[in-house]
Design brief:
The structure is a single chain. By secondary structure, this protein is an all-alpha fold. It contains three helices and no strands. It has helices at residues 15-28, 41-49, 63-92. The longest helix has 30 residues, at 63-92. This is Alpha/beta-type small acid-soluble spore protein. InterPro entries: SASP_alpha/beta-type, SASP_sf_alpha/beta.
């Protein structure tokens, strides 16, 4: 049986910061984002992609459609986190040469 994924952040207390990151990243992608409720951006992404995501139960939603919504959000967040880490590393090390 597959293990159910938790929707909680691994680091306690980081949810707010991750929400702000999600909001900023998706805003930069051109989506209409409510900075007070970044969790709602998934509905904006779903709407633009034609995925019938609605608040509440979405048992009728296929895995493919769920991935169409979650993929761009998670992917954009990971790319931004990698970019931020690379920037931090480049500022910490003196250039080699």
């Amino acid at each position: 049986m597959a293990r159910r994924r938790s929707h909680r952040a691994m680091v306690p207390g980081s949810e707010h910061g991750l929400g702000l990151l999600k909001a900023q990243v998706m805003k930069n992608q051109g989506y209409n984002v409510n900075m007070e409720r970044p969790d709602l951006v998934k509905y904006e992404v779903a709407r633009t992609l034609g995925v019938p995501l609605q608040q509440g139960y979405n048992g009728q939603l296929s895995s493919e459609d769920a991935g169409k919504v979650g993929g761009p959000i998670g992917g954009a967040m990971v790319r931004e986190l990698v970019r931020m880490a690379q920037q931090q590393l480049s500022q910490q090390r003196p250039p080699q040469g």
